[in-house]
Write a structure and sequence with these properties.
Helix content: 40-55%
CATH class of the largest domain: Alpha Beta
Largest sheet: 10 strands, mixed
CATH architecture of the largest domain: 3-Layer(aba) Sandwich
Strand order of the largest sheet: 3-2-1-4-5-10-9-6-7-8
Number of domains: 2
Distance between the termini: 21 Å
């Protein structure tokens, strides 16, 4: 079953343009409907100091937000028109009280595309959090690095396989994309005996009509995330498929973890599922 419905979080400024670029490429490749969504809460001043602000100040803050939203919508429409996708696109203004509202919205789409979070000054409340969407949406999330520029999609996908639940979920969610790739590599990192093995996954993929090869690499001193990035660069991958938050997000926030490291360090698009 092919991808037919894509939602792309977009806040209008340069840091998130790369996410929209890939979303457009995916919409063209799969002849899919592309929905742009801008998530926003209330401005920091309003949420933090509401009890001390006059109604005039609050009105001014909300008028400014409406102007920002109008700019974002106009920019999205211009990009869609330039790409010839106006007949298969739509736009949502998600005025949400929490980050979870975008995750809930995403459940009605095949896949979510987001740039990494990089808030422009004064627009912090327009920046949706990809970690929250990956954890709570139940949908595959494609995280796109801020300098994504390829004119076309690199069709070599790498599956980060560790035999765990989240990796299996990501593999299942990615099948409809992997089926369209020219090359697929199943990558294992470290010397631990993994079950199911990479060979087992290659057999599964072959039964889906997807040819793949195995690649094993010991973990480098920089850890698993750095090893994944090094291998992806070495073999010229265009997409990394991996499970997200096999350990709790709380522990990763406090102690660090592979998912959080990938959010910070990825140099290629990453499809994540939890």
């Amino acid at each position: 079953m092919a991808i037919k419905s894509i939602i792309a979080a977009y806040s209008g400024h340069a840091e998130n343009s790369s996410g929209l670029r890939l979303a457009v490429q995916l919409a063209k490749k799969y002849n899919a409907h592309l929905t742009g969504v801008v998530w926003h809460g209330r401005a920091f001043l309003e949420t933090r100091y509401r009890g001390f602000l006059s109604s005039e100040v609050i009105s001014t803050l909300r008028t400014r937000d409406a102007e920002i939203l109008s700019e974002i919508r106009s920019d999205f429409d211009e990009r869609i028109f330039a790409e010839g996708l106006q007949g298969q696109s739509s736009f949502l203004d998600l005025d949400g009280g929490s980050d979870s509202s975008l995750a809930e919205c995403a459940r009605a789409y095949d896949i979510v595309v987001m740039g990494n979070r990089a808030a422009a000054f004064g627009r912090e409340h327009f920046e949706a959090r990809p970690d929250v969407v990956a954890l709570r949406s139940g949908r595959p999330l494609v995280l796109v690095q801020k300098d994504y520029l390829p004119a076309e999609i690199n069709e070599h996908a790498v599956i980060a396989w560790d035999g765990k639940r989240a990796a299996a979920r990501a593999l299942g969610d990615a099948l409809q994309i992997l089926d369209t790739k020219s090359k697929v590599t199943v990558l294992t990192v470290g010397n631990t005996r993994i079950r199911p093995s990479a060979s087992d996954i290659i057999v599964l993929l072959r039964r889906h009509g997807i040819e793949a090869e195995a690649f094993a690499r010991p973990a480098s001193r920089g850890g698993v995330a750095q090893t994944l990035m090094e291998v992806c660069k070495e073999i010229g991958a265009g997409l990394l498929v991996m499970g997200a938050y096999e350990h709790s997000k709380f522990s990763e926030d406090i102690l660090g973890g592979v998912t959080q490291d990938i959010f910070n360090e990825a140099h290629l698009p990453v499809l994540m599922s939890h």
